[in-house]
Amino acid sequence: MSAASTNSKLDEKSYILEGQRGSLDGSPDSMEADTKQLVQSTSDDELARSGLLSASFNYINSIIGSGVIGIPYALHQAGFGLGLLLLILVAVVTDYSLILMVRSGHLSGAYSYQGITEAAFGRGGFILLSFLQFCYPFIAMVSYNVVVGDTVTKVFMRLFHLESTSIMAQRWMVIGLATIFLTIPLCLYRDIVKLAKISFLSLLFVCLILITILIRLFTLRDSVPSTPDAFRFANWDIIPAIGIMSFAFMCHHNTFLIYGSIENASQKKWDRVTHASLFASFVVSAMFGIAGYATFTGLSQGDLLENYCWDDDLMNVSRLMFSGTILLTYPIECLVTREVVITTFFPRDKEMGNEQAAWYRHIAITLAIVTVTYFLSMSTDCLGVVLELNGVLAAVPLAFVLPAICYLKLEQGSIFSRQKLPAVGLALFGLIVAGVGLAILVMNFSDLDTCSHGKGLDYCFKNKSSAILPNMVAD
Length: 475
Fold this sequence. Notes:
The chain has about 475 residues and is mainly alpha-helical.
């Protein structure tokens, strides 16, 4: 899931979950009023209009997040050449789907994702979108725990010279401590607008991590053993690779907030901002993918930072930055999942307002969500598997299928008209990827857990200038 701009991520995640389906006139004033329904402390200046450059920055910031760390693994699965072509394809179809969403907003007068879905398919569309909006951040929370468990343990071992058998070097303990002392208190906090104000650091951290990866491309590449057919053009795992890429480019939950932030917003301006933002995001993602894959080729893991040696202090700094970024994103994702549950099953809580809402239900739902994600994250240490799962089950339907079929339903004319044919292709692309991807995950379920946290890396032992911690054992 990508990190949002200073306030847009939190506001939109409140906005897309609003259950008021009666005020869908699409005017800027009504859009801001809907946004404030869940985040009462949001001030007018936080929803101020911005120029195209500022909107593009917010756009890019909402796309580029934790998903980019899995792009090298996606290139490994699909093949280097085909993987880059697929990355271009995913960027292009994402660009088109985002443009379709705003077109659907103009057609229906419903300027929210839930609004256009319900305008097209009624209550059933509303429920389906709510389910997907629950699944996407929920699985993302699991992936955040996996990353914390995989990376922070390495930093602890390096800083405190811990043995691999030490309790503080165990994933369950590290994730548990982060959950108890950081994520639960933040997730229980209802008004987390102030937390979102520092989320702009996410993009800065991602850029710094990219710099360290580029540095290690030149300093570590010769120490990593080459793998057979490392730069083969194509491999067979195309669908899982598309799932990971779709997760990396997923930003559709921010669409209408960013659109509403543009001064004198129009379809033409939106198209320009979308093209520029998706191109910039593609460049950054491609740099992550190429640099990471060129360094480790066939050894690339779902979490690229897992490939670097445990005593690599430069990459340990990157691990800390990455972990800090996702730990601050975790409570915002929890807000979405909790609000979906409350809006769907306890709508009267929302009607009563924050002051009168059942506080015990708020606490119970929050603790249940956090606890379940904790135990699910213990079931695997393979980030790639979690990214594939989220991409196939949630990101692909949210990014490709629903925007396309909503537009097809709302736009007048034959489904086979020239105007609608690209949307038909987008819908078929999403359905095929989601269907085949789900089938592959089911068939290969017993073989999914193919990586293992904490294993020593042979090239770290062999490279004397970057020897792994002496108390670790090589595979």
